[in-house]
Amino acid sequence: MAAITMKNIVKQYGDGFPAVNDVSIDVADGEFMILVGPSGCGKSTLLRMIVGLEDITSGDMMIGDKRVNDLAPRERNLAMVFQNYALYPHLTVYENIAFPLRLAKKPDSEVDRLVREASATLELDEHLERKPGNLSGGQRQRVAMGRAIVRQADAFLFDEPLSNLDAKLRGQMRTEIARLQKRLGITTVYVTHDQTEAMTLGDRVAVLKRGLLQQLATPRELYENPGNLFVAGFIGSPPMNFLPATVEGNRVQLPFGSVDIPAEKAERSAGRGLLIAGIRPEHFEDASLAAAEGRTGSTFSAKVDAVEWLGNETYAYIPFEAPDEVKQQLHQLEKDLDGEAMRTQLVVSLDGASRIAEGQDAEIWVDGRRIHLFDPASGENLTVDHTRAGRLPGREGAGAGVSA
Ligand SMILES: Nc1ncnc2c1ncn2[C@@H]1O[C@H](COP(=O)(O)OP(=O)(O)OP(=O)(O)O)[C@@H](O)[C@H]1O
Ligand SMILES: [Mg+2]
After folding, report:
1. Which of 5-31 are b and which e, b meaning 16 or more Cβ less than 10 Å from the residue's Cβ?
2. Do residues 56 and 11 make contact, with C-beta atoms less than 8 angstroms apart?
3. Residue identifier of the C-alpha nearest atom 25 of ligand 1
4. What is the DSSP letter of 132?
5. Nearest ligand 1 atom, CA 45
6. φ, ψ at 23 (rounded to 5°)
7. What residues contact 67, with CB distance under 8 A and at least 6 apart?
């Protein structure tokens, strides 16, 4: 096992397009690192550079303390678990797992020991004599992992391994991969565009946008302290609401009224004119329910356009007006996020017990402590401590490195 260190990694394809643009990520020994971002952000390219399937334009790729830029894939001792599992249909599960050991001409006794160890870990014992074609998607995935395990690779690399499984199996496999990774303690780099996978699997998550690293932090840090508008809009479902805002004293003026915010947040964003406030749907509540629970915060009155009752929660939709400056930034964000629609409509998630109805003026409570304030020009989150949040200062736009 080994740490993987990426230092100022750049990948320019033939046409000069910087698919990966000056990315530095340190994956600790035994860590589960997620690479996440919308389609085309450079996740697969970065993973392929780690494993050696793609040349590195510039920067240093280190495995342990060895620079591997010029090493062939087989010299890097990494195991890539492919999306299509790459199993041999004519071989049994046993021989599929044993394959790399046979290639390395290991003695039968050693092959047998390693295959049986792996199959016990993966709970594949009863399937060893079967052919991959007769296995479920999840079982095939485990066979592919078994092959990686017997190689005693320094790290596992996954590129969207669950994307062609149905939702239920995807959930099961997700838990299984998490459990196995913890048990094996093997350094893992896992590419996904699925934020649920990113949040549940990763010790840390690297969020990429158009080849640029946006934030490298724990899932909780990404959710609680997103470094910029992009990360804030990418992490969370339904997504964070973005509203025009101005700060006056310890209050922030929103389209619906003003809300108290902590002094620290007010100080960080004072005197900056028009800002974009970010508030997650779950940080609102039906004011009558919030009052009954004695929650402190601000309330406002707003006309509810539509309501969706889901039993455990209720979504209420509240339209608002926004100046062009804010609309333009939200439109750009929508493009960056790959089409996730950023409407000038507030989505609030209320307790399912709420009686708020369509067409009504409703009293809504909001948790002012959880409000984020973003600079509309740079997208930077003004309300977080960036050194703590793991964001890389000055990397919002094209920044340093190679520009498109
Ligand atoms: N062989 C290639 N030649 C030129 N450009 C390429 C090549 N492979 C990828 N790219 C470009 O590099 C960028 C990053 O591609 P990459 O495959 O790494 O994205 P990704 O984040 O894995 O996306 P997805 O989620 O769609 O798999 C894209 O803009 C893509 O068009
Ligand atoms: Mg990809």
Report:
1. bbeebbbbeeeeebbbbbbebebeebb
2. yes
3. 39
4. G
5. 18
6. -100, 130
7. 60, 61
CA-to-CA distance for 79 and 92, rounded, in angstroms? 20
The pLDDT assigned to 138 comes to: 77
- The protein residue whose alpha carbon is closest to atom 1 in ligand 1 is 13
Return the structure tokens found at 394.
């000055």
Peptide bond just before 238 cis, omega within 30 deg: yes
Give this prediction's pTM. Answer: 0.89
Residues touching ligand 1 (Cβ under 6 Å) are 13, 17, 19, 37, 39-45, 193
Residue 266's alpha-carbon distances to 223, 283, 350, in angstroms, are 20, 18, 26
Nearest Cα neighbor of 99 from 158, 142, 52, 148 is 148
* β-pairing verdict for 155-159 and 78-81: parallel
Banded pLDDT at 83 (limits 50, 70, 90): low
Segment 28-42 mean pLDDT? 96
Q: Write the residue with the smallest CA distance to atom 22 of ligand 1.
A: 44
Q: Which two tokens stand for residue 156?
A: 């596992």
Structural domains in the chain plus CATH codes = 4-221 (3.40.50.300), 227-374 (no CATH)
Phi, psi angle pair for 40, to nearest 5°? 85, 5
